[in-house]
Amino acid sequence: MNPLSPRLPSHARETIHQFLRAHALADPARGVVVGLSGGIDSALAARLARDALGGDRVLGVLLPDAGYPPSLLRETEEYATSLGIAHRTIPIDAAEAAVRSLVPELSDRVDLGNVKARLRMVVSYALARPRQYLVAGAGNKSELLVGYFTKYGDGGADLLPLGDLYKTEVRTLATQLELPWGFLERAPTAGLWEGQTDEAELGLRYDELDRILYGLEQLLDPEEIARRGEVPIEKVRSVEARIRATRHKRRMPPIPKLSLRTVGLDWRE
């Protein structure tokens, strides 16, 4: 293993269980909604939530669009059933069509993908509030650091139980928990348009990305990351630039300072 490849902490599973119980069972919360996309991240988030909270406190939500493969939908529904959690399948085609009719100039596939992600989160919250559930997102540390998520879409959750696990660590934990083979082997994708894959959009493999990110976490300089991580220096620079460009996604909206204590600046909760 490369010296910059992240290692899954031995306490990861139990820490995430404790985290979920501390937040999702704290009054008035009663459980979590987890969006099930058919990918490894959401499958792992649902499994960890089931193990931590019990199947009766987890609702899996499948929100397919017109291009979602029927075979993957069946596989994901069967997985939710195997976990022993309640699940709902709600196609978002009608909602997507309504938005497109309101904004006819909406045609760029990235913009349309963002609309889909935000509609899915709207539905998740609509299901969560009456149950007094929190929405548990499936974003991992790799995606969060490079901004590979939709602002107020899949990034707009109450909890991110996988948020301090790099993508390669997600795969390790999912393998340890013996998640179904399809989730482990399927190419990572947000499913926002046909043929879309995470690694193609990012421009590098997740194992490369994680070595770069881990090196940056350890405060190594770019040249050392490139050498020890066995990645081109150009990729290291590209990841650094992406982190800088997407910092707004990891922060509250900026607020001008006008009073003694300001939300997001010096108002301590």
General description of the model:
This protein is of the alpha/beta class. The protein is 49% helix and 7% strand. It has helices spanning 12-24, 40-53, 70-83, 93-102, 109-131, 141-146, 167-176, 181-185, 198-202, 206-217, 222-229, 233-245; strands at residues 31-35, 58-62, 86-89, 133-136. A 4-stranded parallel beta sheet has the order 3-2-1-4, sandwiched between helices. The longest helix is centred in the middle third of the chain and has 23 residues, at 109-131. The protein is globular and about 50 Å long.
Descriptive tags:
alpha/beta, 269 residues, 12 helices, globular, Rossmann fold, 4-stranded parallel beta sheet, single chain
CATH class label of the largest domain: Alpha Beta
The dominant shape is globular
Question: What is the strand content?
Answer: 5-15%
> What would you give as the CATH superfamily of the largest domain?
HUPs
Main sheet: strand order: 3-2-1-4
- Tally of distinct domains: 2
> Which CATH architecture of the largest domain would you pick?
3-Layer(aba) Sandwich
- Per DSSP E runs of 2 or more residues, the count of β-strands stands at 4
Largest β sheet strand count, sense and barrel closure: 4 strands, parallel
Instruction: Report, as a whole number of angstroms, the end-to-end distance.
Output: 42 Å
Structural class: alpha/beta
Tell me the helix content.
40-55%
Mean pLDDT: 95
Number of helices: 12
Instruction: Please provide the ordered H/E string of secondary-structure elements.
Output: HEHEHEHHEHHHHHHH
The CATH topology name of the largest domain reads Rossmann fold
